[in-house]
Amino acid sequence: MNRASPAVHDSASEHHDIDPITLEVVCEGLRAIVKEMRATIIRASFSSVIYELDDFSCALFNPSAEMVAQSDDHPGHVMPMPWSVRCAMEDFEGDIHEGDIIVLNDAYRGGTHLNDVTVLFPVFAGGELFIFPAVRAHWADVGGMTPGSYSGLSTSIYQEGVRIPPIKLYEGGKRNEGVMRLLMSNMRLPEERLGDLNASLGACRVAEERIGRLVAKYGRDTVLGCIGMNLDRSERRLRNRIRNLPDGEFVYEDYLEFYDAGRLDPVLMRLKLTVDGDHVVADFDGSNPQVSGVVNSSLAVAGAGVFVALKSTLDPHGPVNSGAFRAFTLRAPEASIVDVRPEAPAGAHGEVRKRVVSVMLGALAQIIPERVSGDLSGTSFPNSIGGYSATRDRRYVYVEVPAGGNGGFEGHDGSSAFVNVDFGAIRSIHNVESLESEMPIFIERCELRADSGGEGRYRGGLGMHRALRLEEGEAVYSVLGDRAFVPPFGVDGAGPAGPVRVAKVHDGRTVEFDTPGKVTGHPITAGDCVLMESAGGGGYGDPLRRDPDAVRTDVVAGYVTEERARKGYGVVFDNAGGVDAAATVALRERIAGSQSSLSIVADERHAYTGGKGMRRVVRLNGVTAERLGVVHDALVELRGTHPAPLRAWVRIDDETADGDCPINAFGRRVLGVASGDTVTVRTLRTPQVTAGLAG
Q1: How confident is the model at residue 11 (pLDDT cuts 50, 70, 90)?
Q2: What is the DSSP annotation of 432-494?
Q3: Burial of 681 (0-12, 13-18, 19+ CB in 10 A)
């Protein structure tokens, strides 16, 4: 069964007597209110995750649950928030009054993950519900099985923390002390959580006062009229951009990394993007059913990924509000990884959103290749450490999201160790001084990762190498990342980026984790060092066409090693360190001539395998596999006429003819090929998974 995202329109848009100056002043006044809310949060919050990392968002909503104003906020927060507001209004239909304040974090009802706690503050004008100021802030801990409430290996939502449905924290201006005690009793560091909650409440009270001034000056009807007109013009603006695209259906698929009993069992995300005039439909039919792992999320989160990719590609400078949301429709199978149902965990909402961005880029690359980039780093990469500091005589929870690389694009390399577009104003790294003063943690190293950017005519951005040492006592470490096995892809012939890597250094020995990218409550002791290496961004364009002098500059800067300059870019240096032009031309010709190709065979049989997950397989003859240098279960990518590659795992099958590559219809559409066409094949370097692959 498919479920489409509802479209909500505000009838207040029929106000033709509002002049353009009033329209702009009112709309910018609303945005100014949101900015003041943000400033209040930063000044008043207790958690460094909020006041240092900026992991929070503010917005205003009208009585139809449409987002009418936001500022420099987190797209992964504000775009799902209308769903939460709508759910709260449904639960309390006819029972929302002045002095009520609603709190929620339900991942199944427009929430993201349980750490993101939303406060809704109804504001009335003339005795009628007028606007909802709202704050969604990342609380550093909301209970659950690990400090920080991050668990890469959760199997149920109940392990991820306390789940809060829409509930009145204040009713008629009076705080519900029972609700408050219940919430705080289920969270580590309750004093810090209470401080963060009060910061959100303070921001909403500031908004209430400023909204009152705006209404007093312009009147309730004029403000609502301006809101409606602004939503309508935002809708028209994005629809006009969509109208410039060719109509048609464009498909792509990619993976999230799920571990079932320690075995890697990738889950499939499939997208059919339909452009029809001035409207887009994003249909996730065929995506993996939800799994007993963290890589599930709500349709609201998937919608955020669709909107981020669409808006940043077509109209990066236009306003972000619910008017623009009307230009697309979402469809997804219920109880799938993109439309989760109880009681599956949903902690990796950021990974799901980022993979939606990936499949959107893959589909958009078939429409407007000159406007897209290589894949982004593809993971929010949250790391957490929790323990007790005897020196400070208190518990602590460390949370960090080390930024990765962005994809290269036409005319420019991707930015390095910089937040992806779906992360908004969140900082690339946590402030060192703040961390070391608040917690028994020492930052040993923070630098760019050589060779982590995808090779291309325009190189992908580099990831980050960050090393943290525990200074005292014992603690536990968790990480909920992705792209540790299936790396970010390049487009238009470019190479993939370096994947995520995490490890622990104990007594001088580096210990790799059995489940790369996903760790739950791993014990660490004083002197241990945690290594966090974020993924790079995919490249753009054929790396053999990159300016050799640009490659040399990268080598000198430490971005690319000489080995990768030679093997990936075909650039040879002379004894003085300069580019050997003749040797470079010869090497590039040899590399281009040695690329392996296979002949496509239309075949709908056995396209996918796996346990609870689904991963594409390509069945190759043993002679073919030996010639390509691949083994059973090796991860490869195929490239056809479309810019983005198709990933698959090798199955040795001697019933397949030598040189043939059986691919089903969906895969052929991804590649842009038909039976008898040829595709090139590249083997991807992947970390070893100790327990092997499921299925």
Answers
A1: very low
A2: HHHHHHHSSEEEEEEEE-TT-SPPSSBPPPP-EEEEEEE-SSEEEEEEE---SSSPPPPBTTP
A3: buried
- Would you say residue 411 lies in a domain? yes
| 423: nearest Cα among 459, 380, 383 | 380
Burial class of residue 136 in the structure, from the number of CB atoms within 10 Å of its CB (0-12 exposed, 13-18 middle, 19+ buried)? buried
Strand extents, DSSP E, 277-367: 279-283, 328-333
Rounded mean pLDDT, 389-395: 95
Q: What is the DSSP letter of 392?
A: T
Q: What is the pLDDT at residue 5?
A: 47
Kindly state whether residues 586 and 646 are assigned to the same domain: no
User: How many structural domains are present in the chain?
Assistant: 4
Residue 690 has pLDDT above 90, yes or no: no
For residue 12, pLDDT beyond 50: no
Q: Give residue 695's pLDDT band: very low, low, confident or very high (50, 70, 90).
A: confident
Mean pLDDT calculated for residue range 374-400: 95
Confidence class of residue 16 from pLDDT cuts 50, 70 and 90?
low
Cβ proximity of 143 and 190 under 8 Å: no
Residue 630 lies in a domain: yes
> What does the alpha-carbon distance between residue 614 and residue 607 come to, in Å, rounded to a whole number?
9
Indicate the helix (H) or strand (E) that contains 88: helix 81-91
Alpha carbon 52 to its chain centroid, in Å, reads 20
- Decide which of 236, 253, 268 is a domain's last residue: 236
**3-class SS letters over 588-599:** HHHHHHCCCEEE
Residue 426 has pLDDT above 90, yes or no: no
Strands 635-639 and 678-683: antiparallel
CA distance 580 to 274: 48
Q: What average pLDDT does this structure show over 269-278? A: 98
In the predicted model, is pLDDT for residue 665 greater than 50? yes
CB-CB contact of 411 with 378 (8 Å)? no
Specify the DSSP element, H or E, that contains 303. Answer: helix 299-314
Residues 6+ apart with CB under 8 A from 30: 60, 68, 69, 214, 227
User: Which pTM does this prediction carry?
Assistant: 0.96
Q: What share of the chain is helix, strand, coil (3-state, %, to 5)?
A: 30, 25, 45
The alpha carbon of 323 is separated from its chain's Cα centroid by a whole number of angstroms, namely 23
Instruction: Please count the residues of the chain.
Output: 695
Q: Cis peptide before 455, with omega less than 30 degrees from 0?
A: no
Q: Give the domain-ending residue among 236, 257, 288.
A: 236
Range of the domain at 520: 381-546
- 3 state DSSP class of 59: strand
Angle made by CA atoms 118, 121, 127, in degrees to the nearest 5: 155
**What is the pLDDT at residue 298?**
96
| Beta strands 646-652 and 615-620, pairing class | parallel
